C-alpha cells in the first residue's frame, strides 16, 4: 500500500502541471485582460473586463481598428490612444506581461510549488488571504449541505430498497424526482417568496451568515443566529444532491440484495439486520464512496454562484466568477492550483477508504 501511495503522489505532479498548462494556454486566447481593464478605467470607457477587443484575442488584445499595422506608435490595447507608451509598458511590467508566455508560466509554477500565489491584481490583498477570507461561507454551505445530504439520503435510500415497490417507495420517489427536477436557484426564489419576507411569511433573513448585531450576542444566541441564516440556502443547495444520493443508495442496495451471497446468508439463519449491515452495507457503500471526492471538493470549494448571489453570501463561488470576469489571473490560477491539489488528494483518500470499507480490495496487486 505504501508503494501505491507514493506512486499516486508522484503522479499528482504531472497532473497538476497539465491542468495548469491547459488553463494557461486557454487564457492566452481569451479576449481582454487586466491591462485593458486599467485602461478602460482611466479613459472612462467602462470597467467591464468582458468588453470586446478588436483584432486577435490574448492577454494583450488585438491592434486597434484603423491603426496602421506598421505604425510603432499604434497601441495594441483598446482605448489606449493618447496614453504615454511608457505608461503602457509600466502596466505590462506591473502585471508581468513584459515577459514571454512560457517564461510567465514557468515562473508561476515555480512560485506555486512554494505556495506563493502572489497578490490580487485589483484587490489590495494576497491570494491566500483572499481565499481564507471567503472560505467561511463556502465551508458553512458545503459542510452542512454534505452532512444533511448523507444523513438523510443514505437511510432513506436503504429504506426504499428494503420496501421496493411499496407505497412508501412510490411516494418518496415522486418527491425525490420533483426535487431533482426543480433547479436549486428556482427553489431558492420560492423559499424567499414563502418564508423570507416575500408575499407570505417573514421567518428567515435574506443576507449573510450572521446578523448585524452578532458580536453582541451570547454564544447560544450566536449559534442559533448562524443556523437561522443557513436554513434557506442549505435547503436550496441540498435539494438536487439529496435526490441523487437517495436514488443512488437505493439502486446500489437493490443490486447487492439480489446477489447470491445474500440468499446464502439468509438461508444460514442470519437476521435481516445482520444481513443488511454486516454484508450488504459494506459492498453497497462502495459506489457511494466513489462519488465522495467529487462531492467533497464541490461542496467545500466549488461554491454556488447563484445561491451565493441570491442570498448575498460572499463565498468562493462568487469570488471565482468575479476573478474570471475581471481577468484577475493570480486569483484564477491560484484557486485552480489549490483546488486541483485538494481534488487529487481527496481522490487518493477515497481509494484508501475503499480498503477500509472492504479489505478484499488491494491496490498493490493492480497493474499500473
Structure description:
By secondary structure, this protein is mainly α. 67% of the residues lie in helices and 0% in strands. The protein contains 14 helices and no strands. Helix 1 packs antiparallel against helix 14 and helix 10 runs antiparallel to helix 14 (329-357). The two termini are 13 Å apart. The relative contact order is 0.12. The model is unreliable at 47-74 (pLDDT under 50).
What are the salient characteristics of this protein?
globular; mainly alpha
User: What distance lies between the first and last C-alpha atoms, to the nearest angstrom?
Assistant: 13 Å
Q: What is the chains' assembly state? A: single chain
| Helical residue percent band | 55-70%
Q: Classify the secondary structure makeup into a structural class.
A: mainly alpha
The biggest beta sheet reads:
none
Low-pLDDT ranges: 47-74
Question: Short description, anyone?
Answer:
67% of the residues lie in helices and 0% in strands. With 368 residues, it is mostly helical. The protein is globular.
Topology (SSEs and partners):
Elements (H helix, E strand, L loop, with lengths): L1 H27 L5 H10 L41 H11 L5 H13 L13 H36 L4 H15 L2 H12 L23 H39 L2 H8 L4 H19 L1 H11 L2 H6 L5 H10 L3 H29 L11
Amino acid at each position: 500500500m505504501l508503494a501505491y501511495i507514493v506512486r499516486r503522489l508522484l503522479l499528482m505532479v504531472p497532473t497538476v502541471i497539465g491542468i495548469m498548462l491547459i488553463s494557461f494556454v486557454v487564457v492566452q486566447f481569451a479576449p481582454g485582460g487586466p491591462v485593458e481593464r486599467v485602461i478602460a478605467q482611466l479613459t472612462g470607457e467602462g470597467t467591464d473586463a468582458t468588453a470586446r477587443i478588436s483584432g486577435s484575442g490574448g492577454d494583450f488584445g488585438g491592434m486597434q481598428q484603423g491603426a496602421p499595422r506598421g505604425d510603432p506608435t499604434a497601441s495594441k490595447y483598446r482605448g489606449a490612444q493618447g496614453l504615454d507608451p511608457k505608461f503602457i509598458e509600466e502596466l505590462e511590467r506591473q502585471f508581468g506581461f513584459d515577459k514571454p508566455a512560457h517564461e510567465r508560466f514557468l515562473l508561476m509554477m515555480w512560485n506555486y510549488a512554494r505556495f506563493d500565489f502572489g497578490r490580487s491584481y485589483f484587490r489590495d490583498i494576497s491570494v491566500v488571504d483572499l481565499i481564507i477570507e471567503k472560505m467561511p461561507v463556502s465551508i458553512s454551505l458545503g459542510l452542512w449541505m454534505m452532512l444533511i445530504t448523507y444523513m438523510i439520503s443514505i437511510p432513506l435510500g436503504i429504506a426504499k430498497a428494503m420496501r421496493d415497490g411499496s407505497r412508501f417507495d412510490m411516494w418518496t420517489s415522486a418527491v425525490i424526482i420533483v426535487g431533482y427536477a426543480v433547479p436549486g436557484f428556482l427553489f431558492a426564489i420560492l423559499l424567499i417568496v414563502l418564508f423570507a419576507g416575500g408575499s407570505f411569511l417573514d421567518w428567515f433573513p435574506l443576507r449573510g451568515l450572521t446578523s448585524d448585531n452578532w458580536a453582541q450576542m451570547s454564544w447560544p444566541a450566536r449559534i442559533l443566529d448562524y443556523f437561522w441564516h443557513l436554513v434557506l440556502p442549505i435547503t436550496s443547495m441540498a435539494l438536487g444532491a439529496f435526490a441523487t444520493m437517495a436514488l443512488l443508495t437505493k439502486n446500489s442496495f437493490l443490486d447487492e440484495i439480489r446477489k447470491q451471497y445474500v440468499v446464502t446468508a439468509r438461508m444460514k439463519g442470519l437476521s435481516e439486520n445482520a444481513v443488511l449491515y454486516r454484508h450488504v452495507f459494506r459492498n453497497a457503500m462502495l459506489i457511494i464512496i466513489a462519488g465522495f471526492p467529487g462531492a467533497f471538493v464541490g461542496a467545500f470549494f466549488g461554491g454556488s454562484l447563484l445561491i451565493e448571489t441570491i442570498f448575498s453570501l460572499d463565498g468562493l463561488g462568487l469570488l471565482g466568477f468575479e476573478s474570471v470576469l475581471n481577468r484577475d489571473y493570480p486569483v484564477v490560477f491560484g484557486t485552480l492550483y489549490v483546488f486541483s491539489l485538494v481534488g487529487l488528494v481527496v481522490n487518493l483518500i477515497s481509494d484508501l477508504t475503499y480498503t477500509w470499507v472492504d479489505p478484499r480490495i488491494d491496490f498493490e496487486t493492480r497493474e499500473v
